[in-house]
Write a structure and sequence with these properties.
By secondary structure, the chain is an all-alpha fold. It has eight helices and no strands. About 30% of the residues are buried.
Length: about 190
């Protein structure tokens, strides 16, 4: 074989390698953009905790896990009962913020259980919820942390109020309440 043919083969191989590298980088950026769009703040949270590659694998694994679960909407009776219970918790907030926040945390757990989310430890629940409710999972983590701090006597009334507001956003999302539907109101600043 002549020398120019070897050069042509080498150049062709180099072009193929370069094309493969560019394609791989494009696909990686596209996957990152999809994950960032899909998970929002939860994507940033996971990247901070694990690094980008591990975070993206974790979020992908979550999607696969939750896809296998039987998550169902609430029936009308359960939804109405839970909304009434939520309103009672909010009314209780004025006189007993600690009890109201504890009750709100329990209501979130009940809604999740009724919808079909597994009731493993808190981090697994938050991970599962992040797939279908990524915009409010940060609220869930924050409100739950305040609830835990309150159980240790370390939360202020303002923190408890914030927890109720944060629990409310997840509660509404889990109930799949639209903007025009009747929904629980936030606690007052008393």
């Amino acid at each position: 074989m002549e020398m120019w043919m070897w050069y042509a083969i080498g150049a062709g191989a180099a072009v193929l390698v370069l094309l493969a590298l560019v394609t791989w980088m494009w696909m990686r950026r596209r996957r990152t953009a999809r994950m960032r769009d899909r998970f929002g703040q939860e994507y940033d949270h996971e990247v901070k905790e694990r690094g980008r590659g591990k975070a993206e694998r974790e979020l992908n694994d979550r999607e696969k896990r939750v896809k296998q679960l039987s998550i169902t909407p609430l029936d009308r009776d359960d939804r109405d009962r839970l909304v009434r219970s939520w309103r009672m918790a909010q009314e209780r907030f004025v006189d007993d913020p600690r009890s109201a926040v504890g009750h709100a945390d329990l209501l979130i757990t009940e809604v999740m259980q009724l919808r079909g989310y597994p009731m493993a430890d808190f981090e697994q629940r938050a991970a599962d919820v992040s797939v279908d409710h990524p915009a409010v999972v940060a609220n869930y983590r924050s409100a739950h942390a305040i609830s835990v701090a309150d159980a240790q006597g370390k939360a202020t009334t303002e923190q408890l109020r914030q927890a109720m507001v944060q629990f409310r956003s997840l509660f509404q999302d889990l109930l799949e309440v639209g903007e025009d539907a009747e929904s629980p109101a936030p606690p007052s600043r008393n």
